[in-house]
Amino acid sequence: MTVARTRARDILDPNPWTLRPDAAALDSLQAMLRRRVTAAPVTDATGRLVGIISELDGIRMASQVWSNVIPAPRVDAVMVTVVHTARPGTAVLPLAGLIEKHRIQQVPVVDEHGVLVGVVHRAAILRAILDDLRVERPRAPRGLYLSAIDRGEPARLSSAREG
Fold first, then answer.
1. 81-90 pLDDT tens trace
2. Is 101 left (phi over 0), alpha (psi -120 to 50) or beta?
3. Which of 66, 74, 113, 154 is most buried, by CB atoms within 10 Å?
4. Nearest by Cα to 111 from 6, 11, 14
């Protein structure tokens, strides 16, 4: 499948590890570390996405708890509630743009009701793009470039990628 045809539904993790808003934040962060999860979607009892918590959110919160600035909070006090999401039909390149623009680890994929259906990780996007680059593509014959040079025409660098 080419990148142009690949959609979020094709590369998402359908069973991401999630947290509940009322969970203890410190325990949740410990679990994230054990599972090697860099960010976790936060869902309510119906599966609706209500936020996301990342390692960076955890660092901010844990350092404040350690300094006795705040008491140990719940996940809903630490999570980010403005979450950049995608729909199952979102193409790969817009997903890549979202991750690059917002410097996020993953994109939660939600249905029309805001229910989490999965998560697309950066590695899945990179894998899809690299797989597409490995696909055999027709190349212009080398003689095309040499004949242009023989006629004194400027070589077009973009020709090497066309085809």
1. 999 999 999 9
2. alpha
3. 74
4. 14
Q: Is the dihedral of CA 150, 154, 155, 159 positive or negative?
A: negative
Nearest residue to 23 via CA among 1, 5, 45: 45
**What SS3 string covers 37-89?**
CCEEEEECCCCEEEEEEEHHHHHHHHHHHHCCCCCCCEHHHHCECCCCCECCC
Domain boundary assignment for the chain: 8-134
Q: Which residues are paired to 24 by β-bridges?
A: 74
Identify the architecture of domain 8-134 in CATH. Roll (3.10)
Structure confidence by residue, pLDDT tens digits, 27-84 = 999 999 999 999 999 999 999 999 999 999 988 888 887 777 767 788 999 999 999 9
d(CA 57, CA 91): 28
Q: Distance between CA 18 and CA 15 in Å, rounded?
A: 9
CA distance 62 to 77: 12
